[in-house]
Amino acid sequence: MEILTHPNPVLKQHAMDVDIAHDSDLRALVRTMAGAMYEFSGVGLAAPQIGVAKRVIVFDVEDQLSALVNPVIVERADETVTDEEGCLSVPGISVPIARAEWVVCNGVTLEGKEVTLRADDFLARVLQHEIDHLDGVLILDRLDLPERKEAIKAYNAVNQSQRLG
């Protein structure tokens, strides 16, 4: 399984909503995503990261695999917390990203049930990160210009040495 990496243009595209009633491949997609997430030791993955432009995310924060279809953040804390964040699509680096301390996220389960999650701390960060992917936003896009230039320089250096090694 390949995870798309920066600067693949697919990662910058806005994913399309999923019609659960008419998407017979949805469960297979989630299985594929979960397999890729675990294979690369991630805690979350969005469908665009494997080249599928659908609004689907998977995550495993507390040894519990979850999937959400068409997730949207409907409320977020005004307070932010900045922490180091990595990304399977920008491998080899981590950067400080400010995220809302908590979020309320609406979505749909694979069974078609509408759900609302109130997430704090790490789960809130993961949901925000994965939903960013659905909107074509990478962690690099969350940095100011000097930070972005440094992060891209570090990313290129790490990935150049891996290609040569």
Short characterization:
The mean pLDDT is about 95. The chain has helices at about 25-40, 120-135, 145-165; strands at about 45, 55-60, 65-75, 80-85, 95-100, 100-110, 115-120.
Give a quick set of tags describing it:
165 residues; alpha+beta; Peptide Deformylase; five-stranded antiparallel beta sheet; two-stranded antiparallel ribbon; 3 helices; 29% helix; globular
Q: Mind explaining what this structure looks like?
A:
The chain has helices at 26-39, 121-134, 145-164, and strands at 44-46, 56-60, 65-76, 80-86, 94-100, 102-108, 114-120. The strands form 2 sheets. The chain has a 5-stranded antiparallel beta sheet, with helices on both faces. The protein has a single domain (9-164), classed as Peptide deformylase (Peptide Deformylase, Alpha-Beta Complex), CATH 3.90.45. The chain is of the alpha+beta class. A hairpin with a 7-residue loop joins strand 4 and strand 5 (94-100). The chain has 3 helices and 7 strands.
Structural class comes to: alpha+beta
Overall structural domain count: 1
CATH superfamily, by name, is Peptide deformylase
Q: How would a crystallographer describe the biggest sheet?
A: 5 strands, antiparallel
* Rg, Å, rounded: 16 Å
| Element pattern in H and E | HEEEEEEEHH
Q: Could you tell me the mean pLDDT?
A: 95
Q: Which CATH top level class fits?
A: Alpha Beta
Strand content: 25-35%
Shape: globular
Oligomer: single chain
Q: Tell me the total number of β-strands.
A: 7
